[in-house]
Automatic annotation (TrEMBL):
It comes from Kribbella sandramycini. Its EC number is 1.20.4.3. Residues 5-59 form the Glutaredoxin domain. One of its GO terms (biological process) is cell redox homeostasis. GO terms for molecular function: electron transfer activity; oxidoreductase activity. This is Mycoredoxin.
Length: 79
């Protein structure tokens, strides 16, 4: 099971960067394209005060980080 879910878009440079960093670090994640998956954009808006800001990362405990660094993701996973 993936440690986190990353909400993204195919054209987002920040998303591409974080995906690459997560893969290199061996951190499993599920990616959801907010432009293709019904309800995903609305979830991202709810997390980000009405904004469709990506990448938005949601952890198993329900907490979320918006446009986090790899270090922030790793820190959250060990906390």
């Amino acid at each position: 099971m993936a440690a986190l879910t990353m909400y993204s878009t195919p054209w987002c440079g920040y998303c591409h960067r974080l995906k690459g960093q997560l893969k290199r670090a061996g951190i499993e994640f599920t990616e959801i394209d907010i432009e293709q998956v019904p309800g995903a954009a609305e979830l991202v808006e709810k997390i980000n005060n009405g904004n469709q800001t990506v990448p938005t990362v949601v952890f198993a405990d329900g907490s979320a980080l918006t446009n986090p660094s790899l270090a922030q993701v790793a820190e959250k996973l060990v906390a």
